[in-house]
Amino acid sequence: MKKVVKFGGSSLANAEQFQKVGDIIRADVTRRYVVPSAPGKRFSGDEKVTDMLYACYAKAEEETDFSADLAKIKARYDEIITGLALTISLDKEFAGIEENFKAKAGRDYAASRGEYLNGIVMAAYLGYAFVDAAEVIFFDEDGNFESDYTNEKLSERLANVKRAVIPGFYGSKHDGTVRTFSRGGSDITGSIVARAIHADMYENWTDVSGFLVADPRIIKNPEVIETITYRELRELSYMGASVLHEDAIFPVRKEGIPINIRNTNHPEDKGTLIVESTCRQPKYTITGIAGKKGFCSINIDKAMMNAEVGFGRKVLGVFEKYGISFEHMPSGIDTMTIFVHQDEFEEYEQSVIAGIHRAVQPDTVEMESDLALIAVVGRGMRATRGTAGRIFSALAHAHINVKMIDQGSSELNIIIGVKNADFETAIKAIYDIFITAQL
Ligand code: ASP
Asked: Hey, whose CA ends up nearest to atom 6 of ligand 1?
């Protein structure tokens, strides 16, 4: 049995948190590969080391003095090293970083140092080998992650290393330039390592006890999701539920490795298990609710649209021309509605409308802005009658006007469009009918 354990920034923010992490790792001998983030916030209002590095490097690029900023970053690590009573020193590392900053080694290089240094500290603390991610995680010339090549090299490298620390968030291009994933990318590294070593489990340790059924900023103390499938998770994270980086699913999914989201501050909690498929019945009909604001809809009307072959393609071609991706496209006999992100669309609005007129000569094109989309996700919906009915009666009771309904063919989710202003009330109404009413 082999586990990969990834710890987020808040789990490694100071020596005390490091000790909790050490206890967790030592409590299970199968926790053999450790992927750390950079130190996060120690208290609300504190700065993440990654953000400090970005700011410090910005000064280096402008050729203003950044030595005080770099010293502050070093102090964060020194505090951890002293707190853990380690004897290592990062003086040499910091001298190298200072030089590389002066030589303008790049923003990605700068940000990656947060994880790199934390990896060195973690390896020393645990007595594990340190494997620099730049030597085992690869990006192509354009900066795209090279999944299969990385998998091959990383498996080879770790084959004879029983216990190792591999810093999260970055890798390198073939010319040696450091490249990072997008923010929160250590989750992806954990998943890549899990795939490479054929882990039995990828544990992702953070500061919450798993995925919540709904956003805690909207619902007070929402229930934790016990088990969720990759597909459900993808639907929810796409709609804004964030605990795990969206792209972290793909590498482990290929291998069918489950992910367990755990809480470093409450290791006794079971957290959320993310799996390919499961026969475990979900506790409630729905698994989760998530949503996003800031959409607008373009409603196209044309008599006999249904008989016009190629109508949809021509309309979508206009959006494609301006690089706008659409979210949903419900249609009627003579109508077609396209949902897009308002901020992406605004810039091209008039060109798109003119383009649609030219392409398909519609009778009318109307737009509605400030819409929100809510996804109600659950594998349990397929086998349950009346889910849609319950959602819409709950929304009607809350006096919410439903603007759009879209049920994916997977029957895994129902997407509901409402006005931005109704967003929170709608989520509360749906949560109450499925969760609170059953507690
Ligand atoms: N430290 C990086 C960030 O803050 C990556 C990570 O924590 O996953 O985005």
From this structure: 184
